[in-house]
Design goal:
The chain is α+β, with helices and mostly antiparallel strands. The chain is built from four helices and 14 strands. The protein has a five-stranded antiparallel sheet with strand order 12-3-4-13-14, covered by helices on one side. A five-stranded antiparallel sheet has the order 7-8-9-10-11, with helices on one face.
């Protein structure tokens, strides 16, 4: 008696020969076939940077580093993150460079309209509210900008305002935003806020705070790769705005 084994045809799968051998279409795609890939688009890019603002009795200081990054690339070493909204008010913004530029343009236009209608510059608390309104109007597609605002109020006292992405803000004596915020805030809490300290709190002058700001950025630059190159400091007083720069690590 003879037994005949039934043979079934083996399905022939489309394949392509590559350096990895024969690759069938049901195996893992290593980029050698024409299988479609999913590509994602993001309208945002985080360009790094750190900003800080501190208020005093009759002055305010706003500072930021000048490094512009994208991922692990340094795009520029000399880009200002500070913007003079009025002669007594400075905006510091970190985040996406294009969104920051657009936000500055909107604020400048609104400030010029106000000055044309009222024949005077907008006061710092009014600028703070205008910035809040501007951010809130874009709450469904927010500006990717982390903002601090510093200046002198209508009484000549230093004022600092910190913001979230959609315009919620509060007035405080100091604030920091950006990629180095986690390194700045503990230092400011201790040195400026005088928290958890038993010694007598001394009133610091503008020049003393400038030196503290320099040390703070040097410290942040040691840990944060997006903070570096140099720090730009603007000192706001009743006599105007004075600029100070200080070199940081360039690596």
């Amino acid at each position: 008696m003879e037994f005949h084994r039934e043979t079934r045809p083996v399905p022939q799968l489309p394949f392509i020969t590559s350096s990895e051998g024969v690759v069938y279409n049901d195996s893992i795609d290593h980029g050698v076939t024409e299988a479609p890939y999913e590509h994602r688009f993001s309208p945002y890019d985080f360009n790094g940077g750190t900003t800080i603002a501190i208020s005093g009795k009759d002055f305010a200081i706003v500072a930021a580093d000048t490094r512009l990054s994208s991922g692990y690339e340094i795009l520029s070493r000399n880009v200002s993150k500070l913007h003079e909204v009025t002669t007594k008010c400075v905006l510091g913004s970190a985040g996406c460079k294009t969104d920051v530029d657009q936000l500055r343009s909107v604020l400048d236009i609104q400030g010029k309209v106000y000055q044309h209608n009222h024949r005077k510059q907008m006061a710092t608390p009014s600028v703070a509210q205008m910035l809040s309104n501007t951010l809130y109007q874009r709450r469904l597609f927010p500006y990717y900008a982390f903002n601090v605002l510093g200046g002198l109020d209508q009484h000549g006292k230093g004022a600092v305002y910190s913001y979230d992405a959609i315009g919620s803000f509060e007035r405080s004596s100091y604030s920091a935003t950006g990629s180095g915020q986690a390194y700045m805030i503990p230092l400011l809490d201790n040195v400026i806020g005088h928290r958890n300290r038993m010694d007598i709190e001394a009133e610091l002058g503008a020049e003393e705070i400038v030196e503290i700001v320099k040390d703070a950025f040097v410290t942040a630059g040691e840990r944060d790769i997006y903070t570096g190159d140099s720090v730009e400091i603007k000192i706001i007083t009743k006599n105007g705005i004075r600029n100070v720069t200080h070199a940081l690590k360039a690596d």
